[in-house]
Amino acid sequence: SEAELVALLKQNISVAISELRDLGITALVTLGEKGTVVVSGGKSELVEAQKVRPVDVVNLVGAGDTFLGGFLFGLIEQHLDLVGAVGLGNSCASEVIKVAGARLENS
């Protein structure tokens, strides 16, 4: 997450992401409602979060876990690249925050 990376590297988020990129590290940096930065192969790309109207947000509990589950499903089961898998994770998280209980209904 943004907060963890800033605390770890003791830099602002832009500098911290640049350091990851320059070191050739592959990482995902979650930025909450702004989205997720994918750092890989000496490049970084922001994958914007899905827009959710504030009135539709019921509960943020489980958003991070649901993001990660969607990301891993996209990466492993659907063979998406990092950016595509992050997009799926973002989409899943944007849905789970609209319901109570951190649980998506089958649809």
Biggest sheet architecture: 3 strands, antiparallel
Beta-strand portion reads 5-15%
Approximate helicity band: 40-55%
Rounded to the nearest angstrom, the distance between the terminal CA atoms is 30 Å
Strand order of the largest sheet: 1-2-3
Q: Please provide the ordered H/E string of secondary-structure elements.
A: HHEEEHH
> Per the principal axes of the C-alpha atoms, what is the gross shape?
globular
- Structural class category: alpha+beta
- What is the residue-averaged pLDDT? 91
**Quaternary assembly:** single chain
Low-confidence stretches: none
What is the count of helical runs? 4
**Structure summary, number of beta strands:** 3
Radius of gyration computed on alpha carbons? 14 Å
Q: What can you see in these coordinates?
A:
Helices cover 46% and strands 15% of the residues. The protein has 107 residues and is of the alpha+beta class. A 3-stranded antiparallel beta sheet has the order 1-2-3. Helix 3 (63-77) packs antiparallel against helix 4. The longest helix has 15 residues, at 63-77.
